[in-house]
Amino acid sequence: MLNGLLLVDKTPGCTSHDVVMSVRKLVRQKKIGHCGTLDPDATGLLLLTLGRATRLTRFLIRAPKVYEGLMRLGRSTDTYDLSGDVTSVRPADHLSTAEIDEAMESFVGNYLQTPPPYCAKKVGGVRFYELARRGEKVPETKKEVTVFELRRTGEPGPGETPGERELPFLLSSSSGTYVRSIVHELGEKLGCGGTLASLRRTRIGAFRVDDAIPVDELAERLEGDAERDASAAGLGGAWVGFDDIELPFGEIVADQQQEKRILNGQTVLVRELAGDEGDWLKVTNQRRRFIAVGAVVERIGTGGVGVVQPKVVFS
Fold first, then answer.
1. What's domain 4-63+205-244's architecture?
2. How far is the C-alpha of 289 from the C-alpha of 262, rounded, in Å?
3. What is the tens place of the pLDDT at every residue in 139-175?
4. Rounded Cα gap, residues 222 and 224, in angstroms
5. E strands along 185-260, which residues?
6. Which residues are catalytic?
7. Which CATH number fits domain 250-313: 3.30.390.10, 2.30.130.10, 1.25.40.10, 2.40.10.220?
8. Residue 200 dihedral angles phi and psi, to the nearest 5°
9. Which residues touch 302 (CB under 8 Å, ≥6 apart)?
10. Are the beta carbons of 202 and 209 closer than 8 angstroms?
11. 3-state class of 313 per DSSP?
């Protein structure tokens, strides 16, 4: 069984689940998950967890995301992207770049975001888009998200119809942020409406789309390999072995005595510990083998000493 991360460059027209199913067939392995859904029309980095690494999905999915995209100002749709029905058309060609920049800057920081009505979020076991398609009212729930950066990456250009503007942008945000909602809300703030025209995810935590591989190319690389060994198929940075997985939090190295305790689920006392109570930590042994994910359960004094409890142990 393969244990590690596979960085896939998702193409448009397929769901994240479609990608997982394709890779399962290619590597002949069922135990595969992914760290954050992309809409069918979106492209870019999809981080797949294989084998033991599936137990890390809940940690990796929390990593910040970076997107590059194109928004269309002057048009609103019911899905907040170009796949939906137009709900309003208002001119945007009178807006100055200073007005646009100021409105984008206002989103930086923490704020309560309303998910788009057409999304996979569930209420009572039913997805929002199922309610919307049936013409039923979608709950107006809000969730706090963090926007680290939202800026344009070029000058506004003419849109498809008179009065519209197309604006390239970059967004860096916390996990769970709906890019379509940000574009929609920005359009409302500017008074012209806005919809997402295209989107590409370029980064998840420390992982970049530049290292990723499309599924079609993966199939070519694995063709004729009876073992479907991704680590030996010349995938370069698209394959990250289990021990080399970088998590979005700190790391400690356990000595031999600590390793024995950790593998038995027991706490260890750690010196020179950087982190507060409740923080997660990746734990490796002195041979650089990834043995556990732990949490700081107690800080002792002010000298950097703390108690770490293993939460996920890899024997």
1. 2-Layer Sandwich (3.30)
2. 13
3. 677 889 999 999 999 999 998 888 999 999 999 999 9
4. 6
5. 194-204, 207-208, 239-241, 250-254
6. 39
7. 2.30.130.10
8. -140, 125
9. none
10. yes
11. strand
Distance CA 93, CA 159 (A): 9
pTM over 0.70: yes
pLDDT by residue (tens digit) across 18-31?
A: 999 999 999 899 99
**Looking up tokens 């080399």, which residue turns up?**
244
Which contiguous run of DSSP H or E holds residue 4? strand 4-10
Which structure tokens are listed for 191?
Answer: 């008074």
Helices (H), 149-196: 179-190
Which residues on neighbouring strands pair with residue 310, listed in sequence order?
294
Q: In sequence order, what are the residues at sequence separation of 6 or more whose Cβ sits closer than 8 angstroms to the Cβ of residue 21?
A: none
Question: How far is it, in rounded angstroms, from Cα 216 to Cα 296?
Answer: 42
The answer to whether 170 touches 59, Cβ cutoff 8 Å, is: no
CB 269 within 8 A of CB 305: yes
Half-sphere exposure of 133 (CA within 13 A, CB side): 8
